[in-house]
Design brief:
The protein folds into two domains: about 5-45 and about 150-220 and about 330-390, FAD/NAD(P)-binding domain (3-Layer(bba) Sandwich), CATH 3.50.50.60; about 90-145 and about 220-330, D-Amino Acid Oxidase, Chain A, domain 2 (2-Layer Sandwich). Helices cover about 30% and strands about 25% of the residues. The protein is built from ten helices and 20 strands. The chain has helices spanning about 15-25, 60-80, 95-110, 120-130, 150-165, 210-215, 245-250, 260-265, 295-310, 355-370; strands at about 5, 10, 30-35, 50, 90-95, 115-120, 140, 145, 165-170, 175-180, 185-190, 195, 200, 220-230, 240-245, 270-275, 280, 320-330, 335-340, 345-350. The strands form four sheets. An eight-stranded mixed β-sheet has the order 6-7-5-15-16-17-14-18, sandwiched between helices. Strands 9-3-2-13-20-19 form a six-stranded mixed β-sheet. The chain has a four-stranded mixed β-sheet with strand order 1-12-11-10, with no helix packed on it. Helix 1 runs parallel beside helix 5 (about 150-165), helix 1 runs parallel beside helix 10 and helix 2 (about 60-80) packs across helix 10 (about 355-370). Bound molecules: flavin-adenine dinucleotide. Flavin-adenine dinucleotide (FAD) binds near residues 37 and 324. Flavin-adenine dinucleotide binds next to helix 1, strand 14, strand 18 and helix 10.
Length: about 400
């Protein structure tokens, strides 16, 4: 068990760690990924696979998503394996007049920012969605939204990165980060030995806080649990992603007009037809620590919500359900940044419900930061020190 060296050690083999390693390897850097379990064994296999701009605030947030969508179309051609990429667009549907007014304002706002959004009336919805409940008012569409299989996407990045020379150390836990006398990174201690390196990327998702503590910094990322139901393979109810408009309210913690249980578990319909026509039906949003047991009350609540929008769902069997932990930050933006007080220490984490959407842009930008290049997008809103300026 000898000591190794690397230009960069990436901690975490989820979608963010793998995208970062892939882009670093393209620049010719010598990279080691240390993953305590399997590749994609964390949140990146307990999620949906939507690559969305529809739910992003106009401005930096949506521009970053659009750039990532563009990069994913390049990855479809570049990576060695396919990952069920499709780009059918996605829609949000409204339950009442009030939501239609808010949706209209959202669409206008997005269009002014140059994004391909449009309103849909009751007839548009009914002609595309024959199984949608009759009382749905209308909705809106974002034409560029796409979808992938998140596990296959993570593996496609991993396999290609490996071919480019990245060393993947699975079932290996990072236990300590060594700093030199000036407080700069000098190595990473793992359960299978020491790796000398001057640069470390903390891509440990909801566990990033723990990695931050190894270098004496506070990383403000908390786990936000979500449940998903998987339906059996069935007739085609729809071919693209549909969400309820009030999902946006749930995502940003705003007030919604729903029953007590739906509010308590933060349930809002997210309906995703997969390539195999098994629907992923979600989801919930809760702060309950690192606990990932299935809560039957939440499952029931999600199922009720799905039937409210698609009454036909009451006859479709559910195969299984699963839970994942979204890496939440207080301002809903990830941290993609160097940490000034610990030279050589970087963070690429905190993507909450957008890690699949933002993996490509995160990996690209992180590779540019590490090699001191001009970044593809500005990274100011993603800096770690934005939280030091405000109360966390
Ligand atoms: C229900 C649900 C639905 C979602 N739907 C979507 C969606 O449709 N679109 C979207 O964009 N996003 C979605 N997300 C969010 C997305 O899944 C996450 O943002 C993303 O997977 C985070 O990736 P990550 O690489 O940061 O974390 P992870 O995938 O959790 O990877 C971190 C890795 O670090 C490893 N690690 C931790 N500590 C150590 C250590 N000490 N040593 C070595 N390794 C360590 C872990 O084992 C883990 O594999 C959803 C999430 C949930 C829960």
């Amino acid at each position: 068990m000898g000591n190794e060296t690397a230009d960069v050690v990436v901690i975490g083999g989820g979608i963010i760690g793998m995208a970062t390693s892939y882009y670093l390897s393209k620049l010719g850097l010598d990279v080691v990924v240390v993953e305590k379990g399997e590749i994609a064994g964390g949140t990146s296999s307990k999620c949906d696979g939507n690559i969305l701009a529809i739910d992003k605030e106009p401005g930096f947030d949506s521009q970053m998503s659009l750039k990532s969508q563009e990069l994913v179309t390049e990855l479809v051609k570049e990576l060695d394996e396919e990952f069920e990429y499709r780009a059918p667009g996605s829609i949000l549907v409204c339950e009442n007049e009030e939501e239609m007014v808010a949706a209209n304002a959202w669409v206008e706002h997005q269009k002014q920012a140059g994004l391909p959004f449009r309103m849909l009336d009751r007839n548009d919805i009914k002609s595309e969605w024959k199984y949608m409940a009759d009382d749905i008012y209308g909705g809106l569409e974002c034409a560029t939204d796409s979808t992938v299989n998140p596990v296959l996407f993570t593996y496609a990045l991993a396999v290609t990165a490996k071919r480019l020379g990245v060393r993947l150390k699975t079932h290996t836990t990072v236990t300590k980060i060594r700093l030199d006398a000036n407080g700069a990174v000098e190595g990473v201690e793992t359960s299978s030995g020491l790796i000398y390196t001057k640069q470390v990327v903390n891509a440990a998702g909801v566990w990033s806080k723990h990695i931050g503590q190894m270098v004496g910094i506070e990383v403000p990322i908390e786990p936000r649990k979500g449940h998903i139901l998987v339906s059996s393979r069935t007739k085609s109810i729809g071919t693209r992603k549909v969400m309820e408009f009030s999902y946006l309210m749930s995502k940003f913690g705003k007030e919604r007009k729903v029953d007590e249980e739906t509010e308590k578990y933060g349930v809002a319909l997210v309906f995703e037809p997969t390539a195999s026509q098994n629907f992923l039906i979600g989801s919930s949003r809760e702060f309950v620590g690192f606990q990932t047991q299935i809560n039957v009350d939440v499952i029931r609540c999600i199922a009720r919500r799905a039937i409210r929008f698609f009454p036909v769902m009451k006859d479709i069997p559910i195969l299984r359900s699963y839970c994942g932990l979204r890496p939440w930050t207080p301002d809903h933006l990830p941290i993609v940044s160097r940490v000034e007080e610990v030279p050589g220490f970087y963070i690429a984490a905190g993507h909450e419900g957008d890690g699949i959407s933002l993996a490509a842009i995160t990996g690209k930008v992180m590779s540019e930061l590490i090699t001191d290049q001009k970044t593809t997008i500005t990274t100011d809103p993603l800096r770690y020190d934005r939280f030091q300026k405000t109360e966390v």
